[in-house]
Amino acid sequence: MACAIVAASSRPALSPGVSLAGQDMIAPDLETAIESLRRMFDEAAMIVPFTGAGISTECGIPDFRSPGGIWTKMAPISFDAFLASEEMRIESWRRRFAMEEHFRKARPGRGHRALAALHRAGKARGVITQNIDNLHQASGIPPEDVIELHGNTTYATCLDCGQRYEIDWVRERFAAENARAPTCACGGFIKTATVSFGQAMPEIAMRRAEEWTRACDLFLAIGSSLVVWPAAGLPLLAKQNGARLVIINREPTEFDAVADLVVRQDIGTVLAPFAER
Ligand SMILES: [Zn+2]
């Protein structure tokens, strides 16, 4: 689902202009974290939130990369394998159907609602996300203001002509054709609209994400371990362009040292006060 995974050591070194904030930027408790966030939101002219799996776990979407997550048990199917083999296309669809209940039942969480409120208030440009669950759109942010770096799994497209197909339609065809992976009327393969391992990053989405990141004065990294390159370069890009950097994540990240504020609390709990209309 995600694309190029590159080791942390391949990240660019910090530019001289980026100073290390140090451990004192870690919010000591929930109350202080919320207070600091409120102040930073008030002071910001343009916020760009960047979200990862952590914002959706309270919505019942499992974190594929976490210990015990699907990807630690089953190797992901690469884009090349999907193209090369009918067996892999079938396996890929079987896995997707097995996840359907999670995606269908999921509703936006407190984090999603807080970001939607910031967007409504004109504070946030939109959201850049690594998630494929469609929950930012479901929270009320218009699709054109959600930049999906890893695509979207709630629908499918033809790899050749781009025609959109709904998951239910694919499942019906799959059943009707004795578990054969359906193809488009044009003959192309139909695949979830996600970016698979080995599949090219969506260029336009990446370019827009970089533009937004350069233009913001507050970059909010939420629920991402910030290890998937190139998306992980965005917080650093923001910092190098003079923005403040806030990291909200249960676990430490390698960018904590350059952040202006680090919040290691439950994401939904921290953002809940901002979700109110
Ligand atoms: Zn087609």
Describe this structure in words.
This protein is of the alpha/beta class. It folds into two domains: 19-61 and 108-150 and 200-277, Rossmann fold (3-Layer(aba) Sandwich); 67-105 and 153-194, SIR2/SIRT2 'Small Domain' (2-Layer Sandwich). It contains ten helices and nine strands. It has helices at residues 30-43, 70-73, 79-84, 86-105, 110-120, 135-138, 167-176, 203-215, 234-240, 267-271; strands at residues 47-51, 127-129, 146-148, 151-158, 164-166, 190-194, 218-222, 244-248, 261-263. The strands form two sheets. It has a six-stranded parallel sheet with strand order 3-2-1-7-8-9, with helices on both faces. β2, α6 (135-138) and β3 form a beta-alpha-beta unit. α8 packs parallel to α9 (234-240). The chain starts with 29 loop residues before the first helix and ends in a 6-residue tail after the last helix. Mean pLDDT is 89; it is low at 1-17. The structure holds zinc ion. Zinc ion (ZN) is lined by residues 158, 160-161, 163, 184, 186, 188.
Report the end-to-end length measured between terminal Cα atoms: 34 Å
User: If helices are DSSP runs of H or I spanning 4 or more residues, what is the number of helices?
Assistant: 10
Bound small molecules, which ones?
A: zinc ion
Strands, count: 9
Tell me the overall shape. Answer: elongated
Estimated structural class: alpha/beta
Query: Approximately how much beta-strand content do the residues carry?
Result: 5-15%
What's the structural domain tally?
2
Order of helices and strands: HEHHHHEHEEEHEHEHEEH
CATH top level of the largest domain? Alpha Beta
CATH topology assignment of the largest domain: Rossmann fold
Low-confidence stretches: 1-17
Relative helix content? 25-40%
* Rg value: 19 Å
The overall average pLDDT, rounded, is 89
Q: Please identify, by name, the CATH architecture of the largest domain.
A: 3-Layer(aba) Sandwich
Largest sheet: 6 strands, parallel
The CATH homologous superfamily name of the largest domain equals TPP-binding domain
How are the strands of the largest sheet arranged? 3-2-1-7-8-9
